[in-house]
Amino acid sequence: MKKLSRRKLIVSGLAATAGASGLAVAARLAQKYGLVPPDRGGLYGPGATLTYAAQRLLTRHSLAREFSRSQISSRPFPNEIGPPTEDFKRLQAGGFADWRLTVDGMVHEPASFSISELKSYPSRSHITEVVCEEGWSYIAEWIGVPLSHVLNLVGVHPQARYVVYVSAEPDAWDSIDMADALHPQTFLCYGMNGSDLPVPHGGPLRMRLPRQIGYKNLKFINRLTVTDDMKKFGKGRGSAAAEAGYAWYVGI
Amino acid sequence: MATSGSAQVPVEAFSSRVSTAPVTKPAPRHSALVRVTHWITTLCFFALLVSGIELVISHPRFYWGETGNVLTTPLFQLHIPSSRRLVPTGYGYVLPDQNGWSRALHFQTAWVAVLTGLLYAIVGFFTGHFRKDFLPSKAELSWRGFWGALAERLRFRRPSEAEGASYNLMQRLAYLLVIFVLFPLVIWTGLALSPAFDSAFPATVTLLGGRQSARTLHFFVSVALVVFLLVHLMMIALAGFWSRTITMITGRTGTRTEGS
User: ipTM of the assembly?
Assistant: First the structure.
C-alpha cells in the first residue's frame, strides 16, 4: 500500500513536471513564432491567445473571400462616427489636399505622404465584406495602395513586429502584426465603389483589412509607426479597443 | 430454542440478501469522464448562453444570405431593446454596451467547450459509450416503438427504479441529436462567422448560404439547444432532481434518497 502510494506520488510528480515544462516550452515557442497577442494578460487572455495563435497558424497567407461586382451592397451602412474636430473640418474644407500620412518608428526613412501621393502609387482594389462585431455586414469595392507598398518605400527594419496606426479621431489607434501588415489585401484605402472614400466611411484614408472585424478597420488614418514592442504604446495591450475591453486580434 | 430459531430466519434472509449484492465495487451509473465533461459543459453552456444573448442585444435583427444591416430588410427581428443607438427597436432607450467582455467570454468558453467535447467524443468512441448507452437497439427502432416511447414520456410519469439504470429511446435519440447534430452545427455556424477562418476555409460559410445565413442558423441552433436544456431539466425534475444530480456528481445511484 505504502509502495503503491509512493509510486503514485512519483508518477504524478513526474507528470506534473512534464506538464509544466511542456507548457513552458509551448509558451516559449509561441512567443518565438509570434503567436502571442499584446492583450495576452487578464481574465480573457488565454482565450485571446488561443484564438490568435490558431488563426495565425491556419490563416497567415490565406485571402479573404472576394465577391462579384453584382454582390456590392446598394446601401452600405457606414455606422456612427464622432463629431469632427476643428482640424478635421479645416482639412475637409480644403478637399483634404493638406492631409498627411506620416510614417515613422523602425523604418530607414521616415516620411509623410499626401493623399495624391498615395494615389500615384500602383492602386489595387478588392470587393470584400465589412463585418461588424455586432453582427451586420455589407459588401463594397475598396480601392487603395497596399500597406506593404508604403512600408517598402520607407524601408522597415527586419526586427519590426507591429505597425501602429493612428486615427484623427481622438483616442483612436490600433496595431497589426507584420503578417497582416504585409498581407496583399491590407490597404491604405482612399476609394470606395469607384469614387473617393466618403467621410462617413473613413475618408480620406482608412485602414482596410478584410480578414478582421470592422472595428479593426480604423477610419481617418494619419500616422503609422513601425515597432518591435507594443508595450511602448498606451497600456501595452495593442490598441485603444483592447484597453476598452475588446480583443486586439479580431479574426472572429 | 424455538423462539431463537425463528428469530434466526429473518436475520439469515437479510444476510443472504446482502450477500447477493456484488462484492466488487459496482460500475458507476455515469463514468468519471461523463461526469467531469458533463459539468464542464454545463458551465460552458451558461457562459455561452449569457454572452450570446448579450451579443444578440447589440443587433437583434436577423438576415438571410451574405449581407444585412439596418439599411436592409431583416428576415425577422426580436422585439427587444438594443445596446446600439442606430438599431431601430421601437424602444426609447439604448442599453449599455457589453460586447467587449461578452465576445471575450464567448470565444474563451467556446475553446473550453470544444476541447471538452472533443475529449468526450474521442473517449466515448473508444470505450463504446455511444454504442452501449445511446445507440437504440434494433427492437426499439420501429415507428411503433418510437410512438410508444414518446407517449410514455408525454404522460410525465415518474420513471421507475429500473429506468434509472439505463436510457429510454427518447433519451437516446435526444442525446444523439444533441451530441452529433446540434453541437457540431453550432460549432460550424459559429466558425463560419470568423472572416479569418473563412479566408482559409471558405466552404465553411458558402455551404451555409452566406455570412448572414450562418449567423441566423447559429441563433436557431442555439435556440434548439436551449429547448433541449429545458426538457432535460424538466425530465430530471420529474425523476427526482437531487438524486439524479447527485448521481451525475458521484456516479452512484442514490436508491435510498430516491423514495423521499
Answer: 0.90
